[in-house]
Design goal:
The protein is α/β, with parallel strands linked by helices and 206 residues long. It has nine helices and seven strands. Strands 1-2-3-4-5-6-7 form a seven-stranded parallel beta sheet. Helix 5 (104-113) links the parallel strand 4 (95-101) and strand 5 (117-120). The chain starts with 8 loop residues before the first helix and ends in a 5-residue tail after the last helix.
């Protein structure tokens, strides 16, 4: 699960808490505001919140921030830094994820550089990244068979579409709008529980 834009910090954290109550186990903090002070403050608050629920916190795009707040790992896009250098800085105890878009060769190179998981997308049209290239569901089967690391699906994921994505081999779903645009905290919790149930109905080893 990826955090939404959170102009109201208290409301944003309450929404993440609701998702954690629903069973979200990995939270990726995404903030494109460029406000370093705000990002650190929010990351520290999320670090405390995820620890409360025994969940993991991944920082999007910023290795320095991930290290500064003792996050569980970092997720890097294609222009966010060298994966091998990030792997060395993180050590073996933290998670390194890599955006691979619709490019399997990029995924193969990411795994060689030390990525613990790779992300493919956009699987469907996404309001977050409307111009992203389409990634085919076949990438998840290839990842399982050829790379042997978990694969995350991102882009336009909804509850109605998720079962097919999981069946195709996705081990994780990066969801923003379909969870956080739900009306109310109880609805967020219920929505996350429904996603968790899909993984239970479609079990496979990551």
């Amino acid at each position: 699960m990826i955090t939404p834009e959170m102009p109201d910090a208290a409301d944003g954290l309450a929404r993440v808490r609701a998702a954690l109550r629903g069973g979200a186990r990995l939270i990726q903090y995404r903030d494109k505001s460029g406000d370093a002070t705000r990002r650190r403050t929010m990351a520290l608050a999320l670090r405390a919140l995820t620890r409360e629920f025994d969940a993991r916190l991944i920082i999007n795009d910023s290795l320095p921030l991930a290290l500064a707040v003792d996050a569980d790992g970092v997720h890097l896009g294609g222009e966010d830094g060298d994966l091998a250098a990030a792997r060395e800085a993180l050590g073996n105890g933290r998670i390194l994820g890599a955006s691979c878009y619709a490019d399997f060769d990029r995924a193969r190179a990411a795994v060689r550089a030390g990525a613990d998981y790779v992300a493919f997308g956009a699987i469907f049209a996404s309001p977050t990244k409307p111009n992203a290239a389409h990634a085919d569901l076949a990438l998840f089967g290839r990842c399982r068979n050829e790379l042997g690391v978990p694969a995350c699906a991102i882009g336009g994921i909804t509850l109605e579409r998720a079962a097919a994505v999981i069946a195709a081999g996705a081990d994780m779903l990066a969801v923003i709008s379909d969870i956080f645009q739900t009306d109310g905290m109880d609805a967020i919790e219920t929505r996350v529980r429904a996603y968790q149930a899909l993984f239970e109905e479609n079990p496979h080893e990551p």
